[in-house]
């Protein structure tokens, strides 16, 4: 069906259904960028060729893509069409429906090899309703088709100041929240529109508020810090300050800690605070935010007032703990051939290590969980894996005590092997805790963080594949050599109690797995 032509009017039918762009007004669509192509229908048809099907009843009826004619008119920056719709009684607070996740662009093999990616139109994936939360990690203009739900949010997202002012004059409220709890200012932070942000918060008729929280508990300040909008974050900081005095171009200001500091008014930890988001951020904008005078001053005050004393105390306790642990390991002699003095020192060191492990797990751990809460404590451990390894090492040392008692009472060598294995795992894990204290130095901090990112990333993936391959081939060699002399222990065919070089390969039970590990090491 041929589209209806409305001279000098864009995509409008006053009864509510978007009809078509004027076929002769090609200059109207020349400014539409690939991001705005998200509004094309997913059925592959050109929106310029959509005709009138069934006449709707009112101007607020939603279209097939979940938008009213007012949204379409705002999208194409047609102020005349907006005025026409508002004149006919359209609801300026009508919301769109559907989720806002576009389909991913396709890449061909040739494009992948050449490093070039074809820009394709991303379509709305509209449903009848959607309550999915917006992922802040993907809230960018390149990967997201989220422009808000109200016509005013559409106008703000695209920077149409004239339409924004007109809708405000006719009752639109910039502080109304959509299904995600976002206001116009949240929308502007997501779309990174600093010019429109300044216009909205200083509007003479209806000012947008910066202290409204969305469904994730984020204000515009904390949202800007979370997704790395540096300019908007600084703008929100300047809006919140209170000027004490000024002399020429020098001024003294105070900044409220609410929303910035990690501690709330009630003393709880605020995981949505700006400081938490900036410190945990991964972008260059997050790094640049640390150079801000307010954030830098806050970090220095927190370090000098609280963190420094605890840091030094924990470092001293760790050094004492490692001293006794090293003494207990080096003085231990299971053959009872050492002097009485060494035995006494060894037992004293073992008791001190055991007391230190129990204190770390019971007193210090319980204190941290009590102050932070269990969920907050677990979330904090994700950022410091060396601390988790240290606590696991303390637990292994405590678990080794029952096996020591069983070995002394039953004289069963297997219990001694289990004890040695637990201690062998605990000792390196305890020394790794030193890496936690090395983070504060510029020389070692970045290197330590990089090591743990490699361990949790590529090395962890390689380790999984390595274990699968070694386990599979270990079973294969066990089946192949189980009926041969090489499949048994070396004592069965060796003339003495030592294994010769030719008899190092053993494929009996678990030894087959260890032999495969030796093979991969080139031995």
TrEMBL record:
An annotated GO cellular component: plasma membrane
Annotated keywords: ANK repeat, Calcium, Calcium channel, Calcium transport, Cell membrane, Ion channel, Ion transport, Membrane, Repeat, Transmembrane, Transmembrane helix, Transport
Polar residues composition-biased segments: 122-135
Residues that span the membrane, as ranges: 311-332, 344-366, 387-410, 430-452, 459-481
Segments of this protein annotated with the region Disordered: 103-135
UniProt subcellular location: Cell membrane
Taxonomy, superkingdom: Eukaryota
One Pfam family named in its UniProt record: Ank_4
Membrane topology: Multi-pass membrane protein
Presence of keyword Nucleotide-binding: no
Main location: membrane
An example Gene Ontology molecular-function term: calcium channel activity
InterPro entries, alphabetized: Ankyrin_rpt (IPR002110), Ankyrin_rpt-contain_sf (IPR036770), TRPV (IPR024862)
ANK repeats: 65-97, 147-179
GO BP: calcium ion import across plasma membrane
Protein name in the entry: Uncharacterized protein
Protein's organism: Adineta steineri
Lineage: Eukaryota, Metazoa, Spiralia, Gnathifera, Rotifera
């Amino acid at each position: 069906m041929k589209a209806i032509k409305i001279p000098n009017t864009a995509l409008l039918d006053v009864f509510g259904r978007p009809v078509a762009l004027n076929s002769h007004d090609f200059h109207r669509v020349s400014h539409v960028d690939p991001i705005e192509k998200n509004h094309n229908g997913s059925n592959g048809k050109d929106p310029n060729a959509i005709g009138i099907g069934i006449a709707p009843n009112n101007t607020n009826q939603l279209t097939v893509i979940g938008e009213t004619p007012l949204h379409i008119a705002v999208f194409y920056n047609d102020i005349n069409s907006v005025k026409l719709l508002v004149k006919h009684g359209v609801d300026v607070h009508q919301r769109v429906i559907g989720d806002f996740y576009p389909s991913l662009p396709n890449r061909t093999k040739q494009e992948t090899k050449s490093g070039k990616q074809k820009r394709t139109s991303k379509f709305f994936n509209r449903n009848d309703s959607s309550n999915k939360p917006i992922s802040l990690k993907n809230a960018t203009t390149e990967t997201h088709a989220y422009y808000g739900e109200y016509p005013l949010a559409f106008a703000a997202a695209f920077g149409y100041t004239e339409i924004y002012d007109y809708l405000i004059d006719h009752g639109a409220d910039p502080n109304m929240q959509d299904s995600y709890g976002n206001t116009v200012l949240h929308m502007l932070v997501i779309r990174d529109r600093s010019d429109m942000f300044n216009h909205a918060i200083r509007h003479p008729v209806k000012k947008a508020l910066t202290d409204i929280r969305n469904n994730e508990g984020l204000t515009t300040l904390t949202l800007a810090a979370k997704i790395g909008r540096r300019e908007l974050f600084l703008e929100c900081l300047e809006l919140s300050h209170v000027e004490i005095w000024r002399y020429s171009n020098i001024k003294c200001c105070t900044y409220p800690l609410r929303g910035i500091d990690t501690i709330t008014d009630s003393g709880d930890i605020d995981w949505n605070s700006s400081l938490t988001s900036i410190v945990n951020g991964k972008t260059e904008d997050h790094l640049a935010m640390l150079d801000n005078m307010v954030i830098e001053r806050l970090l220095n005050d927190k370090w000098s007032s609280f963190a420094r004393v605890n840091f030094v105390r924990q470092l001293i306790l760790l050094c004492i703990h490692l001293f006794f642990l090293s003494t207990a390991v080096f003085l231990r002699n299971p053959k009872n051939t050492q002097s009485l003095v060494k035995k006494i020192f060894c037992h004293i060191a073992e008791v001190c290590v055991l007391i230190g492990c129990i204190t770390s797990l019971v007193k210090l751990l319980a204190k941290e969980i009590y102050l932070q809460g269990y969920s907050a404590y677990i979330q904090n451990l994700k950022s410091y894996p060396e601390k988790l390894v240290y606590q696991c090492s303390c637990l292994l040392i405590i678990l080794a005590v029952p096996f020591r008692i069983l070995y002394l009472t039953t004289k069963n060598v297997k219990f001694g092997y289990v004890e040695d294995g637990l201690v062998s795992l605990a000792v390196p894990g305890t020394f790794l805790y030193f890496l936690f204290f090395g983070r504060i130095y510029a020389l070692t901090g970045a290197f330590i963080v990089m090591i743990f990112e490699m361990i949790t990333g590529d090395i962890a993936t390689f380790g999984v594949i390595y274990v699968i391959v070694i386990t599979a081939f270990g079973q294969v060699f066990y089946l192949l050599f189980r009926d041969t002399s090489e499949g048994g222990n070396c004592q069965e065919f060796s003339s003495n109690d030592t294994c010769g070089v030719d008899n190092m390969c053993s494929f009996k039970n678990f030894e087959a797995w260890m032999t495969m590990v030796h093979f991969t090491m080139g031995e």
